[in-house]
Amino acid sequence: MKNLQLFLATILVSIALVFSVSAQNDDKFLVKAKKLNDRKKYSEALAEYKKSFAAAPNWKAAYGIGSYYSKLKNNAEALVYFRQALEFKKDEPLIWYSLGFAHGELNEDEAAVEALRKAVELKPDYTDAWYNLASVLYKLNRYSEAADAYQTTVKLNPKDAEAYAFLGIAYIKLNEYEKAVEALQKAVKISPQNRGYQQNLRNAEAKLKEQN
After folding, report:
1. Do 133 and 103 belong together in one domain?
2. What is the pLDDT of residues 18-53, one digit of tens each?
3. What's the rounded Cα separation, in Å, for the pair 162 and 202?
């Protein structure tokens, strides 16, 4: 899965976008929490999210609290609040994505797959959710499904060298070496200094030569 730092950057951007859509309907605590988040004062923002939830339980406050615990890598506690957020807004892909990430961090892979599939069902162009879904499927040795999800990822973001690389590796696992070479060539083209991509490409080319 995408690393924690990138995940947090993603959800912070998503929070800013999603929360601003209906900012006029937010209580004063949520408004203050957003401003504090923007200034990276996360513990102070947490206090405001808790005040908002105490005043009138709502999904944004619950999600904000859960995101704080994700930042601390306390994913078990984060799940509690992400589930609370879903009780108020089951059609929000950001919640499902964060729920899936937390499950993945806890090695609860089947639950992660279920949540991430829901995220991409609600938002078919959710690139990060597709990537993380692919990563969990790969971990579960479900290589064909993983390849499909990585394929969707690179269609949405053709500059994602890492997704191309793992797509190629998934194809190697499936003995589809021609597709593996094609994907890994794209990874190397995007990130030519990455020795891991270069090595995997050489491996795929060797396998393809043997096959032919």
Report:
1. yes
2. 555 455 577 899 999 999 988 999 999 999 999 999
3. 16
Res. 2: pLDDT tops 80: no
Type of residue at 91:
D
Using the 3D structure, point to which of 122, 140, 158 is the last residue of a domain: 140
Q: Which long-range contacts (CB under 8 A, 24 or more apart) does 174-179 make?
A: 174/143, 174/144, 174/147, 175/207, 175/211, 177/204, 177/207, 177/208, 177/211, 178/208
pLDDT at 15: 53
* Shared domain check, 167 and 105: no
Tokens of 119: 């995220």
63, 37 Cβ separation under 8 angstroms:
no
Domain ranges, residue 157: 144-212
> Do 6 and 88 sit in the same domain of this protein?
yes
* Per-residue pLDDT at 144 exceeds 90: yes
Could you tell me the pTM of the whole model? 0.87
Among candidate residues 77, 117, 58, 65, the one with its CA nearest the CA of residue 93: 117
Location of structure tokens 């990430």: 101
Which strand (E) or helix (H) includes residue 152? helix 143-156
- Number of domains making up the chain: 2
pLDDT, one tens digit per residue, over 81-98 is 999 999 999 999 999 999
